[in-house]
Write a structure and sequence with these properties.
Keywords: Cell outer membrane, Lipoprotein, Membrane, Palmitate, Signal
CATH topology: Methylamine Dehydrogenase, Chain H
CATH superfamily: YVTN repeat-like/Quinoprotein amine dehydrogenase
Shape: globular
Protein name: Outer membrane protein assembly factor BamB
Main location: membrane
CATH architecture: 7 Propeller
Number of helices: 1
Helix content: under 10%
Subunit structure: Part of the Bam complex.
CATH class: Mainly Beta
Largest sheet: 4 strands, antiparallel
Strand content: 35-45%
Family: Belongs to the BamB family.
Distance between the termini: 57 Å
Oligomer: single chain
Structural class: mainly beta
Length: 383
Amino acid sequence: MRDVIRWKNVALLSLALLVVGCSSTSKKELPPAELPDFTAEVELDEQWDRSIGDGQGETFNMLEPAIEGEKIFAADVEGVVMALDRMTGDVIWEDDLELPISGAVGAGYGLVMLGTLKGEIIALDSSTGEEKWRARVNSEVLSAPATNGDIVLVQTQDDRLVAFDADTGNQRWSFDNTPAVLTLRGTSAPVLTNNLAIAALSSGRVIALDAQRGIPVWEQRVAVPQGRSELDRVVDIDGGLLLSGGKLYVVSYQGRVAALDLESGRVLWQREASSYVGVAQGFGTVYVCLANGTVEGVDERSASALWSNDALARRQLSAPEVFSSYVVFGDFEGYLHLISQVDGRFVGREHVDSDGIRARPLVDGDWLYVFGNSGKLVAYTIK
């Protein structure tokens, strides 16, 4: 059994590296596109920067920071966790868990939550960094835990959902899913409301459970596996779910981008797409960074592309985020790109981290936060 598990882990990592274009052995593989020239219309003003340990490390982690109130929380792969004043960058507290952190930071209701490669869930007090409780699951955790103040919800690498009491860490319920044979290395972070626990799975499905009991409420398939090989049939939903205005936005690899009704799971609209990094939404438009490096603005009324920008082909783009009137996202060389929400034209660019940017940029009001792969966390405003 150990040999099977070890082989599958190698397959998962190899597939992830193949998907993001890290393999350069094939003669047919095209290089990443050169950065296009343009006349800048927007300039960013760096307010502060801070080094967060070793950042993402050598493995394909997606350690996104989290914001709660006036604090921003970030962690590195070795277990360093920091709480910073989001306006000044001053360190409020710092803790070294001395554990291999693999899941992004979750924050809310006074808790900071992290998952590890060893299947541990750690909840810290957001004000002091003091450990509140620690629990264990049966697999590594690659995404941020979520909380609604009553439970903490965790999704494991093998698509199992586990709910813990937010105060004590005692397990409330668990729900097993059958993962796909091959998956990308990553997991979409679950979403919690007062009533629903929602998760996107490696099988291309989205499920909603009763948050109190873990009983299924609805299920919707976003992507249908197609092709002869297991590689062709990968339909992982690794990009984060986006909840806005009673709608749930989701995109899968080799599948579709779609909007679902939160209460029923009914598909409101859908469009073919392939992405492993998630979507952003604003002004009646959904923005998606596709796996091939194309960025699209999709009209919610017609599900058609309003515009498409393919100038960043194969540059391994991060998830997009809406910032003011722009869409922002990073790339493998550490450039932060700003494009217009109206027509997708380039309006700004900033070099943040030579090790690259995988984590989704964070936006809070007029502030933009970017976490580079090396551990550099930078706060910007518009000049």
